[in-house]
């Protein structure tokens, strides 16, 4: 940080500290009638100064204080905005406090019917959980953001968050859930404009892949359903891949599976996710092939019973002059 920047930050911190001192003094006054509102404004201004100084923890705490005083003054809209400001700065330094502030803002916004703001903060919570590696909580909050946006008649924004649910479900190996999400999105695209209908093909393909990993019989049935539902998919290279892979899995034919994948990959390079899912789909076929090979090897190791010579003592079993057992 340059000398000028350091001086600016120090000046901002000094202003913030003086604002807080003024707010605390105000609360001790017996005569001020609007002291909650005035204190809230002072804490809000302190938050702005701390933010300018890059002191995000102090900025967040000041915004929370401002929100609490706005609540006491029955200024819920201002309180929600300050909780929102707190969540925005705290997500960089204190995940749990950021989530707490965001949830308090969401509660107020939902009570006021301000669903767009509530949805935005719900995605902030989801992003905080995702950054921390908590995929389950991230999925749940992206799902909640989707539902809020649907209730607010914002389907395009809603499906942006639903797509995040699907991506995280794949990452968390929740393949049935991922398939359901991508199928829902594909169905939505199919009901919209021609441009959006074209997006259904890729979403149905992703849904089919996830369903196939979850359960190959169920996945094959869903794949056929998607082909019948979306003519763009049925006539595409993805549609041909679905038919070939379904056939290979049903026949447990590893060669057919490999050919189908290679033919597709020659024109459309497979993504890492696509490859990973296809490898999982192929696992039962490989296992069956290995088991068959082992069975074949075991049969080859069995002795030729017709060529076995039975060596027994004369006094145990009767033998003829050639040394063979004579049971006549």
What do you see in this structure?
This protein is mostly helical and 328 residues long. Among the domains are: 1-112, Alpha Horseshoe (Serine Threonine Protein Phosphatase 5, Tetratricopeptide repeat); 173-287, Tetratricopeptide repeat domain (Serine Threonine Protein Phosphatase 5, Tetratricopeptide repeat, Alpha Horseshoe). Helices cover 79% and strands 0% of the residues. The protein has helices spanning 3-27, 35-52, 56-72, 76-90, 95-111, 115-132, 135-151, 155-171, 175-190, 194-214, 216-229, 231-234, 237-251, 254-267, 272-301. Helix 1 (3-27) packs antiparallel against helix 2, helix 10 runs antiparallel to helix 11 and helix 10 (194-214) packs parallel to helix 15 (272-301). The protein is elongated, with a radius of gyration of 34 Å. It starts with a helix and ends in a 27-residue tail after the last helix. The model is unreliable at 308-319 (pLDDT under 50).
Helix content: over 70%
- Which outline best applies? elongated
CATH superfamily membership of the domain at 173-287: Tetratricopeptide repeat domain
Q: For the CA atoms, what is the radius of gyration?
A: 34 Å
Strand content: under 5%
H/E topology pattern = HHHHHHHHHHHHHHH
Ends distance: 108 Å
**Biggest beta sheet attributes:** none
Mean pLDDT: 89
Q: Oligomeric status of the shown chains? A: single chain
**Structure annotation, total helices:** 15
Broad structural category: mainly alpha
CATH architecture of the domain at 173-287: Alpha Horseshoe
Q: Name the poorly predicted regions.
A: 308-319
Here the CATH topology of the domain at 173-287 equals Serine Threonine Protein Phosphatase 5, Tetratricopeptide repeat
DSSP summary, beta strand count? 0
State the name of the first-level CATH class of the domain at 173-287.
Answer: Mainly Alpha
């Amino acid at each position: 940080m340059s000398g000028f920047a350091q001086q600016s930050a120090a000046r901002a911190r000094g202003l913030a500290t003086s604002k807080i001192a003024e707010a605390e003094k105000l609360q001790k006054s017996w005569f001020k009638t609007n002291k909650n509102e005035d204190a809230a404004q002072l804490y809000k201004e302190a938050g702005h100064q701390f933010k300018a100084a890059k002191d995000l923890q102090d900025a967040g705490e000041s915004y929370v204080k401002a929100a609490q005083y706005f609540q006491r003054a029955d200024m819920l809209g201002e309180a929600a905005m300050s909780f929102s400001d707190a969540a925005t700065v705290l997500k960089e330094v204190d995940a749990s406090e950021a989530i707490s502030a965001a949830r308090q803002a969401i509660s107020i916004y939902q009570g006021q019917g301000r669903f767009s703001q509530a949805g935005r903060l719900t995605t902030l919570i989801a992003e905080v959980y995702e950054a921390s590696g908590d995929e389950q909580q991230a999925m749940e909050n992206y799902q909640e953001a989707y539902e809020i946006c649907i209730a607010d008649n914002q389907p395009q924004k809603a499906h942006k968050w639903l797509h995040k649910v699907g991506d995280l479900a794949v990452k968390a190996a929740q393949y049935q859930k991922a398939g359901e999400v991508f199928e829902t999105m594909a169905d939505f695209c199919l009901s919209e404009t021609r441009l959006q209908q074209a997006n259904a093909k890729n979403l149905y393909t992703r849904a089919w892949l996830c369903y196939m990993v979850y359960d190959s019989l169920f996945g094959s049935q869903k794949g056929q359903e998607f082909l019948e539902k979306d003519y763009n998919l049925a006539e595409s290279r993805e549609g041909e891949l679905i038919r070939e892979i379904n056939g290979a899995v049903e026949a447990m034919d590893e060669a057919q599976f490999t050919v189908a994948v290679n033919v597709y990959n020659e024109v459309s390079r497979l993504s890492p996710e696509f490859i990973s899912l296809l490898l999982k789909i192929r696992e039962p076929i490989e296992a069956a092939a290995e088991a068959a090979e082992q069975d074949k090897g075991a049969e080859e190791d069995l002795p030729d019973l017709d060529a076995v010579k039975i060596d027994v003592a004369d006094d145990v079993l009767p033998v003829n002059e050639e040394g063979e057992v004579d049971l006549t």
